[in-house]
Amino acid sequence: MSNGFRSSRQKRRLMAEINVVPYIDVTLVLLIIFMVTAPIVQQAVTVDLPQTPEIVQKTSSKSQAQEPTPFVITVTRDGLYKTSEQPNVVLSNKELADLVTEVVARAQLNANQPFYIQGDRAAPYGKVVHLFTLLKANGVENVSLMTEPELEDKS
Fold this sequence. Notes:
Layout: H1 21-41, H2 61-66, E1 71-75, E2 81-83, H3 96-109, E3 115-119, H4 125-137, E4 143-146
Parallel strand pairs: 1-3, 3-4
Antiparallel strand pairs: 1-2
C-alpha cells in the first residue's frame, strides 16, 4: 500500500562524507596555472665567469701586445665604484651613468676588451648585480664577475 509517502524505512539517510571532487578540480586548475606561469616568472642572469689562465710557454711580444688589458670595476664595501684605469678616484652612484657610458664606448671600440666586476665581500650585493645588469642591458657582452678561489685546507 503505497500512499505516495515513503515509509520511515525507505527514507534515505544523509551522507556524512565530504565531497572531494570540487577540491580536486580546484587543485588541478591551480596546478595547471602554476605550471604555465612558472617559466614566465623565472629570470636568470647569465654570467660568463673568468677562466683560469692556461699555462703558456714563452710567446712572442706580438701576441701579448694583441691581447687587451682587462678593465676592472671594483665595488667597495661602501657601495662606491673604482676602476682599474684610475684606482685612486672613487665614483658615487651619481657618476655611475658616466662609468657605464665609458664602458660601453670601450666595448664598441674593442669588441675583445674584457670587463670584470669585482665586489668587496662586504659590498652590497645589489650594487654588483645592478652594475652587471646595466652593462649587459647597454650591449656590453664581455662582462664577467671576479671571484677569489677558496683556499684548500690540507689537514
